């Protein structure tokens, strides 16, 4: 059992919220890609709420934007973990980082595809 898993109940929820906010703060201050994607979301999400589309389409437009933020957070976490292990060049480290980047590329492609399908019919 991990020594970091000691809290239960409301204290655990409060701790988790604090860790989440710290992670968002770290991503915003340390990751340019996260900042850019966040600003893109601050443009696209309100636009999705304003557009004359169905509720389902609106939910889909917002969901793909938020999904890209989630993928970027996971990609940044993966890169940090790989860098923590070693900064030396290694094929497995490169593969891990490249796959994280590919996941983010797929998420951004999904945004473009969903928005195009919804807006262009």
TrEMBL record:
GO molecular function: ATP binding; ATP-dependent diacylglycerol kinase activity; metal ion binding
Family per similarity comment: Belongs to the bacterial diacylglycerol kinase family.
Positions that bind ATP: 12, 19, 31, 79, 88-90, 97-98
Binding note for cofactor: Mn(2+), Zn(2+), Cd(2+) and Co(2+) support activity to lesser extents.
Known catalytic reactions: a 1,2-diacyl-sn-glycerol + ATP = a 1,2-diacyl-sn-glycero-3-phosphate + ADP + H(+)
Keyword Isomerase appears in the UniProt entry: no
Binding site for a divalent metal cation: 31, 79
Gene3D superfamilies: 1.10.287.3610
Binding sites annotated in the UniProt record for substrate: 12, 58, 72, 101
Primary residence: membrane
Cofactors, names only: Mg(2+)
Keywords: ATP-binding, Cell inner membrane, Cell membrane, Kinase, Lipid biosynthesis, Lipid metabolism, Magnesium, Membrane, Metal-binding, Nucleotide-binding, Phospholipid biosynthesis, Phospholipid metabolism, Transferase, Transmembrane, Transmembrane helix
Residue ranges crossing the lipid bilayer per the database entry: 33-53, 60-82, 102-120
PROSITE patterns the record matches: DAGK_PROKAR
Gene Ontology CC annotations of this record: plasma membrane
Membrane topology term: Multi-pass membrane protein
InterPro entries: DAGK, DAGK_prok, DAGK_sf
Residues at the catalytic site: 72 (proton acceptor)
Listed Pfam families: DAGK_prokar
EC number, as in UniProt: 2.7.1.107
GO biological process: phosphatidic acid biosynthetic process
Physiological role: Catalyzes the ATP-dependent phosphorylation of sn-l,2-diacylglycerol (DAG) to phosphatidic acid. Involved in the recycling of diacylglycerol produced as a by-product during membrane-derived oligosaccharide (MDO) biosynthesis.
Subcellular location: Cell inner membrane
Protein name per UniProt: Diacylglycerol kinase
């Amino acid at each position: 059992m991990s020594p970091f898993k000691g809290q239960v109940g409301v204290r655990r929820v409060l701790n988790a919220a604090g860790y989440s906010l710290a992670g968002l703060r770290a991503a915003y201050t340390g990751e340019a890609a996260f900042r850019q994607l966040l600003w893109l979301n601050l443009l696209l999400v309100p636009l999705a709420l304003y557009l004359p589309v169905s509720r389902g389409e609106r939910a889909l437009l917002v969901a793909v934007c938020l999904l890209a933020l989630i993928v970027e957070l996971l990609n940044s976490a993966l890169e940090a973990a790989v860098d923590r292990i070693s900064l030396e060049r290694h094929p497995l480290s490169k593969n891990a980082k490249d796959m994280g980047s590919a996941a983010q590329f797929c998420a951004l492609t999904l945004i473009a595809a969903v928005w195009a399908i919804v807006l262009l019919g």
